[in-house]
Amino acid sequence: MATAPIEPPQRLVSALGGDPEGPVRAWLAALPELVQQRLDSWELTLDRVHAPGGSSSLVAFVRQQDGTPAALKFPVPGRAAAQEAAALRVWDGWGAVRLLRSDETSGALLLERLQGSVSLRSLPEAKALLEAAGTVRRLWVAPPAGHPFATVAERVAADAERLRAAGDSAGAGPLVDEALELGRSLPAGVTEEFVLHGAFRQGKVLAGERAPWLAVGPAPLVGERAYDLARLVLDRFEDLLAGSGAAAVARRRVAKLADSLDVDRERLRDWTLYRAVRAGVRESVSGDRRRGESLLEFAAYV
Questions:
Q1: What is the pLDDT of the chain when averaged over all its residues?
Q2: In the prediction, which pLDDT does 286 show?
Q3: pLDDT cut 90: percent of the chain above it
Q4: What is the pLDDT of residues 277-288, one digit of tens each?
Q5: Cα separation, 207 vs 118, whole angstroms
Q6: What do you get for the CA distance between the two ends of the chain, in Å?
Q7: Which carries the bigger pLDDT value, residue 20 or residue 228?
Q8: Residues 240, 225: Cα–Cα separation, whole Å
């Protein structure tokens, strides 16, 4: 049982506290009580709340009744929490953190404990990409019958209007037009679909005891592998842009990752452009404008 007040990390509060009347704000205010309820119900002992933590969930390091360490995660309410649990059940610890328990009402997930402060970003670039490729390969399994995941085609279609409107505001018209055309055409050419992590990058792969590296925090989809791999191409793109010959280096990265995982180079290039433009426009309009412009610059290079 916890003996000290449970406080959400400041990073989470800052990210979610902008709307004082919104449902997410209400969830944030109730979070200490929700955590305590789950600690009591699952007979867990709180070690500490992970800080600074992330911007879309609270993670607490806990111990189970037999003393085994675990992590208790509370994602922001919504469909994403249920989707994460469903994906972790599909993988059952193969390449990803193992789901021990879940609670549909609160969205709480009890996970095996990993080394939250040690991700693939702690490794040199070449080694990190090698380990990341080996990890994501394990996640690409056939979708089970009756799965609850959206498809890449559905996600892209849902984003199209928002991307077009935001692209006009960001002044990225030609690149957005190209990305929208790719979003329309690429899903039609898919011949084989897999369960995808959806948000795979080096920071989403943590050191573990059961396996050296395990993926966390999926935003699962069903679609082609190139879509998943495209997000990995974007990792540490700022470092790439800061060096000489950025365009050539970006293309080599696409080729190297595609060849290492038997993914078509052109499709990976196209999905990388799409995801770079989508992220760049979003950042330019509502986030970090400088980062958004850098992502759009990267998109033009691939």
A1: 91
A2: 77
A3: 67
A4: 999 998 888 778
A5: 6
A6: 52
A7: 228
A8: 23
Q: Are 261 and 228 in contact (CB under 8 A)?
A: no
Burial class (CB in 10 A: 0-12, 13-18, 19+), 118: middle
Residue position matching structure tokens 């792969």: 205
Would you state the pLDDT for residue 6?
Answer: 86
- In the chain the domains, ranked by start, together with CATH numbers, are 10-113 (3.30.200.20), 119-301 (3.90.1200.10)
Residue 17: predicted pLDDT: 67
Contact 133, 257 (CB under 8 A): yes
- Cis check: omega of the bond before 52, within 30 degrees of 0: yes
Q: Work out the average pLDDT over 12-30.
A: 79
Inform me whether the pLDDT recorded for 1 exceeds 50. Answer: no
Per DSSP, the residues of the chain read ---S-----HHHHHHHTT-TTSHHHHHHHHHHHHHHHHHHHTT-EEEEE-SS--SSEEEEEEE-TTS-EEEEEEEPSSHHHHHHHHHHHHHTTSSBPPEEEE-TTT--EEEE--EEEEEGGGS-HHHHHHHHHHHHHHH--PPPTT--PPBHHHHHHHHHHHHHHHHHHHT-HHHHHHHHHHHHHGGGG----EEE-SS--GGGEEE-SSSSEEE-----EEE-HHHHHHHHHTTTHHHHHHSSSHHHHHHHHHHHHHHHTT--HHHHHHHHHHHHHHHHHHHHHHS-HHHHHHHHHHHHH-
Identity of residue 230:
A
Q: Distance (Å, rounded) from C-alpha 79 to C-alpha 77?
A: 7
Averaged pLDDT, 290-296: 91
